[in-house]
């Protein structure tokens, strides 16, 4: 097995020994790329990444965690005694579920990014270069949470690449990547991500007649508020994100994907009516919603599976709600809806068997 490391590493045991280790490419290319099929692209990825892995090391600094909380509007997001507008959290502060997404960010030069601004780590070969975050799964180990100030290892493997068809019949490639995060107390988190790669767009075909109509510019600042609907004792959470908030989140995650900040690209090339809210941002929102609404003393987050089904745009108001899926154990379904349209779903499981 080939192992690529960005720093000196320690020995660790894999979570699942039957998972094949994969590697990070400099680039993927193929002759006659314009005629390559999705099935051929998937096969090429599997062949290229077989028996290889990437290991990166990073010290989890408090500044990054502070700035994420401020972007989310969570002034006291790490505890009622810590005002994050006054300073960073101290070493030893636990990193809340999902907040690891602002660490281990892409490290490519700008010249190595795709045409749409995405990093090309584990990208499918051309012409399947348009990436969208489709969903995934996270699993936590109790007692091994990541903490500010500790050095953490990220182990990344490609675990699947499969040809798929979209609703309109066009080809695409579904790629699944597995990330393990090892802290000073052992394996803390397994983060599996699913990306969809669609065919690239020929920019020379973009004309005034093909551009989407420009909607009104987003007004006001971001909003996050809880509302009680009917007799439901659990509040819904209402969100609206401003362009400034999306810019901050893109900067924190070092994500140059232009659909999140470049309105001309988003509208004229990708055919969206506005700048797109990040899928990972709503994933963090789901986990914060669980912490604020459902967590009780003694409950421990074990797993979340999630799927993005429709885009949300800056300035749009949308709602997050939940329902309990099991009367004896902590299992919840979280829905993200824009009006009647479901835009994202999540299923959260707790490790303890609390009944409430």
Automatic annotation (TrEMBL):
UniProt GO molecular function: (3R)-hydroxyacyl-[acyl-carrier-protein] dehydratase activity
Origin: domain of life: Eukaryota
Residues in the signal sequence: none
Cellular component terms (Gene Ontology): mitochondrion
UniProt-listed PANTHER family: HYDROXYACYL-THIOESTER DEHYDRATASE TYPE 2, MITOCHONDRIAL, N-TERMINAL OF MAOC-LIKE DEHYDRATASE DOMAIN-CONTAINING PROTEIN
Listed name of the protein: Mesaconyl-C4 CoA hydratase
Organism: Sordaria brevicollis
């Amino acid at each position: 097995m080939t192992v690529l490391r960005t720093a000196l590493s320690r020995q660790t045991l894999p979570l699942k020994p039957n998972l094949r280790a994969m590697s990070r490419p400099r680039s993927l290319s193929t002759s006659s790329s314009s005629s390559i099929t999705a099935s051929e692209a998937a096969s090429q990825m599997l062949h290229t990444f077989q028996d290889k892995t990437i290991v990166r090391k990073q010290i989890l600094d408090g500044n990054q965690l502070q700035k994420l909380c401020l972007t989310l509007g969570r002034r006291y997001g790490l505890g009622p005694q810590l005002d994050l507008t006054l300073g960073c959290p101290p070493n030893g502060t636990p990193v809340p579920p999902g907040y690891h997404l602002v660490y281990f960010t892409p490290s490519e030069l700008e010249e190595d990014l795709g045409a749409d601004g995405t990093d090309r780590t584990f990208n499918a070969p051309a012409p399947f270069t348009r990436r969208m975050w489709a969903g995934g799964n996270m699993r936590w180990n109790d007692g091994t949470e990541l903490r500010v100030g500790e050095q953490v290892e990220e182990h990344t493997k490609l675990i699947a690449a499969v040809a798929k068809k979209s609703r309109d019949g066009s080809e695409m490639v579904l790629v699944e990547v597995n990330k393990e995060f090892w802290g000073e107390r052992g394996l803390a988190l397994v983060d599996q991500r699913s990306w969809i790669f669609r065919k690239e767009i020929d920019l020379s075909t973009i004309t005034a007649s093909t551009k989407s109509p420009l909607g009104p510019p987003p007004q006001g600042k971001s909003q996050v508020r809880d509302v009680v609907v009917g007799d439901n004792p659990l509040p819904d959470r209402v969100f609206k994100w401003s362009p400034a908030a999306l810019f901050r989140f893109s900067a924190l995650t070092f994500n140059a994907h232009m659909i999140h900040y470049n309105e001309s690209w988003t509208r004229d090339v990708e055919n969206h009516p506005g700048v797109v809210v990040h899928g990972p941002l709503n994933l963090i929102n789901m986990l914060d919603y669980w912490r604020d609404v459902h967590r009780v003393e003694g409950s421990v987050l074990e797993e979340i599976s999630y799927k993005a089904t429709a885009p949300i745009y800056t300035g749009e108001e949308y709602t997050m709600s939940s329902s309990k899926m099991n009367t004896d154990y902590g299992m919840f379904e979280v829905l993200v809806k824009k009006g009647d349209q479901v835009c994202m779903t999540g299923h959260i499981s707790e490790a303890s068997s609390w009944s409430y």
